[in-house]
Design brief:
Number of helices of chain B: 3
Strand content of chain B: 25-35%
Number of strands of chain A: 13
Largest interface: A-B, 18 and 21 residues
CATH topology of chain B: Glutaredoxin
Number of domains of chain A: 1
Protein name (chain A): Glycine cleavage system H protein
Structural class of chain A: alpha+beta
Oligomer: heterodimer
Keywords (chain A): Lipoyl
Cofactor (chain A): (R)-lipoate
Structural class of chain B: alpha+beta
CATH class of chain A: Mainly Beta
Family (chain A): Belongs to the GcvH family.
Number of strands of chain B: 5
Strand order of the largest sheet of chain A: 7-10-11-5-4-3-12
Shape of chain B: globular
Helix content of chain B: 25-40%
Function (chain A): The glycine cleavage system catalyzes the degradation of glycine. The H protein shuttles the methylamine group of glycine from the P protein to the T protein.
Number of domains of chain B: 1
Distance between the termini of chain A: 9 Å
Number of helices of chain A: 5
Order of helices and strands of chain B: EHEHEEEH
Chain lengths: ~150, ~90
């Protein structure tokens, strides 16, 4: 597990720093995607998460979900184009899962990318994402990630 | 009676353990109103987050007892009754 200022970045995940999302290669031509620990810290307590429906086509760096927190409303962007194949229905019941378990229970959508190999090659994996996130956190003036007791990284 | 001691409870709405921790502290402070002041530091706002950074807090709930500007005790995570009761050992009666 890579760590930067108490923010966790699991080694097996790929990261799009500019979109502040992680991507997990599910090994069947699809990926799951969610907000990073850094993203959930910046957002604060998430109130609603509304993903686009399964079957929708998405374009690179366009929204796959809208997230609303106590201090922010905005899109979660997918770093590549493809088709949404599944959405995490649990989030409609309890969006704070994104805060509590951003990398496990808190996946937002599963996507079948148009060009999986090429797309993953453009992302940083594990600790390789640290320099990018360091700069990102400095830009956002985020000092450290602070976790709730029982946080499931 | 000396100056009151300050108890700060660092919380966040997404933290399931923060509400019960705050209630426990509040109950103790209610019994010792002349001894303790209670302040909730909410991490969902910028001021609260900055205060948490200054105090080096990485996990919430965190409860800090301080007196005369110095930190006396710190509980990280949900407190037990015994841990909170230990705060009273700092009272000068």
């Amino acid at each position: 597990m890579a760590e930067i200022k108490n923010c966790l970045l699991p080694d097996d995940l790929y990261y799009s720093v500019e979109n502040n999302v992680w991507v997990r290669d599910l090994g069947d031509g699809t990926i799951s995607l969610g907000m990073t620990d850094i993203a959930q810290t910046l957002a604060g307590s998430v109130i609603h998460c509304k993903p686009k429906a399964a079957g929708k086509k998405v374009k690179a760096n366009k929204s796959i979900a809208t997230v609303e927190s106590g201090k922010w409303v905005g899109p979660v962007k997918c770093p590549f184009s493809g088709e949404i194949v599944e959405v995490n229905e649990q989030l409609s019941q309890d969006a704070t899962i994104l805060n509590k378990s951003p990398y496990k229970e808190g996946w937002i959508v599963k996507v079948r990318p148009d060009n999986l190999e090429g797309d993953l090659a453009n992302l940083a994996k594990g600790a390789d994402a640290i320099p990018g996130f360091e700069a990102y956190m400095a830009e956002k003036e985020l000092g450290e990630c602070i976790h709730c007791e029982g946080f499931d990284g | 009676m000396a100056d009151k001691l300050l108890i700060r409870v660092f919380t966040h709405p997404a933290c399931s353990g923060c509400g019960p921790a705050l209630r426990m502290v509040w109950e103790m402070v209610e019994q010792e109103k002349d001894a303790f002041n209670l302040r909730t530091v909410k991490l969902e706002n910028k001021e609260g987050l900055q205060e948490a950074y200054r105090e080096g807090i990485k996990t919430i709930p965190t409860i800090i007892l301080s007196g005369e500007g110095k930190e006396l005790e710190r509980i990280v995570g949900s407190p037990s009754r015994e841990e909170l009761a230990a705060f009273k050992s700092h009272l000068k009666r």
